[in-house]
Amino acid sequence: TGPLIAAGRLALTLYVLHVLVLAAVKPDGGFTLAQGMAVSAVLTVTFLVLAVLWRRVADVGPLEWVLRASWWRTAR
Fold first, then answer.
1. What is the DSSP-derived secondary structure letter of residue 30?
2. How far is CA 16 from CA 32, 52, 76, in A?
3. Contacts made by residues 1-9, CB under 8 angstroms, sequence distance 24+
4. Side-chain-side CA neighbours of residue 45 (13 Å)
5. What pLDDT score does 73 carry?
6. What is the pLDDT of residues 6-53, one digit of tens each?
7. Which H or E run contains 24?
8. pTM above threshold 0.90
9. How far from each other are the two terminal CA atoms of the chain, in whole angstroms?
10. How far does CA 69 lie from the centroid of its chain?
11. Each residue of 31-51: b (16+ CB within 10 Å) or e?
């Protein structure tokens, strides 16, 4: 469960990265079912590995950090 927990801590970053990767690699005619399944499997494994490696360096992902940053909040 460790890789899943790590990915959960980076959920927003991984979602955005997922959309950017798909936009970059999508062929003009779209993916076939087999291609889509292969791309999904590669992205899933890659993102789980990246999440585990990232968690060794930082507690939260870069986009999660921006959302949590105190300078982002408005003064009350």
1. -
2. 23, 17, 30
3. 2/52, 3/48, 3/49, 3/51, 3/52, 4/48, 6/48, 6/51, 6/52, 6/54, 6/55, 7/47, 7/48, 7/51, 9/51, 9/55, 9/59, 9/60, 9/61, 9/64
4. 5
5. 65
6. 999 999 999 999 999 988 988 888 889 999 899 999 999 999 999 999
7. helix 11-25
8. no
9. 39
10. 19
11. eeeeeeeeeeeebeeebbebb
Q: Which two tokens stand for residue 9?
A: 């801590």
Q: What are the tokens at 71?
A: 């300078």
Give residue 28's identity as a one-letter amino acid code.
D
What is the token pair recorded at 16? 């955005």
